[in-house]
């Protein structure tokens, strides 16, 4: 089933709400099997190529371990040790790599690059982070939120638990922020965004049509008021290192601290895609405190991506 139509996962809006409901359900089941040391290997003889043009810890480990756990194997490529760094056209790389593997994950700079790769690929392509989007991370963040706040009595995940929720985004209008907006539009919650001036979200880049899926706040404390989830990210994303000093000055008041968390709902969670810089975008008290979900969030990358890979390769199971 599902084999006829090839799907890519290049941005969050590539899947529909009912597909997310399915994926979260699968992720919960795949995670349970992993926790019980149950063998589950539907991807035997399948190969994932992982292409990294930027550094990674979580994305690499979660895709690589996840693929092996499902019985498959991986090929790891970086710009420096492949022809990608020597100006072989991305279209040619796509044609060649996709003839030898079953699935490709790419972490790169411009979204247009992953789109060009996908346009010339014979196999599904997954976005492992671009300048514009980080859909696998938001997949994990939403699953983590739903595990904590959206499980029914039988342990089934209820996607409707996201409806009407408020997610506070404090910091840069970056790939994570754009992806949160797409998720809000599809799944029916609201993002309260507060960025320093000059670092705002561009709704055209985020690619959202419904202006009601987010609200902009000058004051990050105001953005956190009544939030169900407070989340942030590094002040300087990969590829923007030259702006580091200017950003440090501009972002000084956009540090998630206990005062901000106190404005959110009492049971609000804190998330951060990691790596984190304690004392910059978040205090140690918050990220290492009782409301922080960051370690479950990181682990869940693996479980949701296993569900995603299974879906792209095998379609719906059962
Ligand atoms: N959150 C995330 O994508 O981490 P890595 O950069 O370590 O992959
Ligand atoms: N916004 C960050 C996320 C890192 C996982 C970056 O792009 O570097």
UniProtKB/TrEMBL annotation:
PROSITE patterns the record matches: CARBAMOYLTRANSFERASE
Localization per record: Cytoplasm
Molecular function (Gene Ontology), one example: ornithine carbamoyltransferase activity
The Aspartate/ornithine carbamoyltransferase Asp/Orn-binding domain, residue ranges: 164-312
Superkingdom to which the source organism belongs: Bacteria
First-level EC class: transferase
Task of the protein: Reversibly catalyzes the transfer of the carbamoyl group from carbamoyl phosphate (CP) to the N(epsilon) atom of ornithine (ORN) to produce L-citrulline.
UniProt catalytic activity: carbamoyl phosphate + L-ornithine = L-citrulline + phosphate + H(+)
Name of the protein described by the UniProt record: Ornithine carbamoyltransferase
Similarity section: Belongs to the aspartate/ornithine carbamoyltransferase superfamily. OTCase family.
Keyword Transferase in annotation: yes
All residue ranges annotated as the Aspartate/ornithine carbamoyltransferase carbamoyl-P binding domain in the record: 7-147
EC number: 2.1.3.3
Residues at which L-ornithine binds: 175, 233, 237-238
Keywords of the record: Cytoplasm, Transferase
InterPro entries recorded: Asp/Orn_carbamoyltranf_P-bd (IPR006132), Asp/Orn_carbamoylTrfase (IPR006130), Asp/Orn_carbamoylTrfase_sf (IPR036901), Asp_carbamoyltransf_Asp/Orn-bd (IPR006131), Orn/put_carbamltrans (IPR002292), OTCase_ArgI (IPR024904)
Organism field: Roseateles paludis
Residues that, per the record, bind carbamoyl phosphate: 56-59, 83, 107, 134-137, 273-274, 301
Pathway entry: Amino-acid biosynthesis; L-arginine biosynthesis; L-arginine from L-ornithine and carbamoyl phosphate: step 1/3
Primary location: cytoplasm
Pfam families: OTCace (PF00185), OTCace_N (PF02729)
